[in-house]
Amino acid sequence: MEAREPVAELDARYSDPKATATPWAEARGLLQGAGTFWLSTVRPDGRPHVTPLLGIWAEGAMYFCTGPAERKAANLAANPHCVLTTGCNSLTEGLDVVVEGDATVVGDDALLRRLAGAYEEKYGQNWHFDVRDGAFHGEGGRALVYEVAPSKVLGFAKDPYGQTRWRF
């Protein structure tokens, strides 16, 4: 269940006159079903960093995991602002979605167990995680789990082209 239902607004400046605002249910469905997301963070020296990763939309937020020594973890420790994107690379069909927010480390074991189950359900047995000490543990070792509660979500529809902003 969604914790909060956002308000959808079509931005006519970037939309075809025939476009209508994309319903949140469509964007949420894309976030739930997408296999790959692109995470954008900022290095401590200000340079951008972008990397693909797996993600889960659950309980009204995006979740992803990474090793504590990875570049994205170091970036988020210095600056929690980030962007997650997903969609398709077609120019004429589909929907691209951009989620903006601040990443926070999840430490609640009950939530982590729910998320571990969601990872395995979505991505299969290769993505099985045990939960202990406020983190995921799997074949790759310990992984921090981050929550990104959206401050803003943008959707870019094609055919007709339309930009929807969902305000939370």
Number of domains: 1
Question: In DSSP terms, counting alpha (H) and pi (I) runs of 4 or more, how many helices?
Answer: 3
Strand content: 35-45%
For the residues shown, what is the average pLDDT? 96
How many beta-strand runs? 11
Main beta sheet: strand number and arrangement?
11 strands, antiparallel
Helix content: 10-25%
Instruction: Report the top-level CATH class.
Output: Mainly Beta
Computed Rg: 16 Å
Spatial gap, N to C terminus: 15 Å
- The arrangement of helices and strands along the chain is EHEEEEHEEHEEEE
- CATH architecture assignment name: Roll
Low-confidence stretches: none
CATH fold-level assignment: Pnp Oxidase, Chain A
- Output the structural class: alpha+beta
**Shape by Cα distribution:** globular
CATH level-4 homologous superfamily: Electron Transport, Fmn-binding Protein, Chain A
Give descriptors for this structure.
alpha+beta; Pnp Oxidase, Chain A; Split_barrel_FMN-bd; Pyridox_Oxase_N; 168 residues; globular; 11-stranded antiparallel sheet; oxidoreductase; 3 helices
Question: Mind explaining what this structure looks like?
Answer:
With 168 residues, the chain is an alpha+beta fold. The protein has a single domain, classed as Roll (Pnp Oxidase, Chain A). The chain contains 3 helices and 11 strands. Strands 1, 2, 3, 4, 5, 6, 7, 8, 9, 10 and 11 form an 11-stranded antiparallel beta sheet that branches. The model has no long low-confidence stretch (mean pLDDT 96). It comes from Sphaerisporangium corydalis. Pfam families: PNPOx_N. Keywords: Oxidoreductase. InterPro entries: F420H2_bilvrd_red/Heme_oxyg, Pyridox_Oxase_N, Split_barrel_FMN-bd.
